[in-house]
Amino acid sequence: MIVTNLLNVCIKELAMIELKKQVTFNIHRMGEDKKPYLETFQLECTEATTVLQALETIKADLDGSLTFRRSCRASICGSCGMFINNRSRLACRTKVKDMVDLNSDEELILEISPQKNQPVIKDLVVDITPFYEKIEKNNPFIQEGSEKVEQVDKTSYEQVNMVSNCIMCGSCYSDCTALAENKNYLGPAALAKMFRFVADPREGQKKKRLKELSKKNGIWDCTRCGLCIDACPKGVAPMEAIVKLRTRAIESGITNNKGAKHAMVFKNDLAKGGLLNEFWMILKTFGLFGAIKQLPNAVHLAKKGKIPPIFSEKVEGFEEIDAIFKQLKENPINVETKKEDDGPGAG
Fold first, then answer.
1. What share of residues in the chain are helix, strand, coil (percent, to 5)?
2. Which residues in 102-119 are b (16+ Cβ under 10 Å) and which e?
């Protein structure tokens, strides 16, 4: 019975691999004239076909001028990052069957374009210079200093382990909504890389790093949309690293910036009455002169009838919110996720 079941499973798997369906690949290209254009290719794919294999077949058999990056084919090098069906992915680990339903009788269309937030050089190849420059400018190496810890053990690197799997594929950078609006923003990859050093016990300039990262275009410019977490093929979770950098910055007393002030006002308002006081939040976050600059927006909102009260009352059921804050004060939660060492020599 067991042998028969295994045989049936093997036959089913082989049948799935042999299933071939024609898939339309809409590839957004760009030539030497820097003018973007769309080109369509039809290709037969099986359930085992990856997007990278499909692109290599198109290049080999249909159009040798199609240009894209690839190397390891094993989601290690990060070279084949591209925008596939409205999200950044690695072409080598993305199967066609996961993007389109090969069992459907409808036309199967797969959209491929170059990564976002980076200049396109040709076709699916982008200029990664800005991406790497933002990492390089923040000294991606251990620095000597008084904050260096001399005695370390395996548990000292639990935070470092979380972000050390980054393969620099640029997927998070491509999908970042903050970068789409502000090209000067450091981006999720650079900030996750900086957390790797802030969390490293051997780093001697932790507070100095946090001060630099708390400036404009740093940790407080993240919109916390979460797309970088979805895009990352290695589970680095850049947004979580950014939140941890914010926490460490505030705990280090680096609060003289709009982002930290806003976060602290937000927390204090909830603790006092369970509701945000929008009137005072602007003043406490931006200061007097900054609040004056917001007057045009205030007038616009007032015309729409959106006038926040100067003094807000406690919300109904505030006792429950107050109890939560008291519990957190008495029993602080360590919000820093730790990842066990599963590398060589672990255990």
1. 45, 10, 45
2. beeeeebebebbbbbbbe
Whether the CB-CB separation of 162 and 237 falls below 8 Å is answered with yes
CATH classification (class only), 20-126: alpha beta
Which ranges in the chain are annotated with CATH 1.10.1060.10?
129-251
Distance (Å, whole) CA 26 – CA 60: 17
Classify each residue of 19-28 as buried b or exposed e, where b means 16 or more C-beta atoms within 10 Å of its C-beta. Answer: eebebebebb
Q: What is the pLDDT of residue 24?
A: 97
Residue ranges of alpha helices (H) inside 124-226 are 129-136, 158-163, 171-175, 177-181, 188-198, 206-213
Where do we find the tokens 């620099």? Answer: 168
Helix and strand counts by DSSP (H, E) for the chain: 15, 7
Cα–chain center distance at 110: 23
Least confident of 9-13, 86-90, 163-167: 9-13
Where are the domain boundaries for CATH 3.10.20.30 in the chain? 20-126
Which among 119, 108, 146, 90 has a CA at the least distance from the CA of 25? Answer: 108
| Whole-angstrom distance, CA of residue 294 vs CA of residue 302 | 12
Distance from C-alpha of 86 to C-alpha of 100, rounded to nearest angstrom: 13
**Which three-class secondary structure state does DSSP give residue 126?**
strand
Q: Which of 193, 135, 196, 210 is nearest to 161 (CA)?
A: 196
Q: What is the pLDDT at residue 282?
A: 87
CA separation for the pair 84, 116 (Å, rounded): 11
Percent of the chain with pLDDT over 90: 72
Q: What does the longest C-alpha to C-alpha distance in the chain come to?
A: 80
Amino acid at 146: S
CATH number of 129-251: 1.10.1060.10
Residue 343 pLDDT exceeds 50:
no
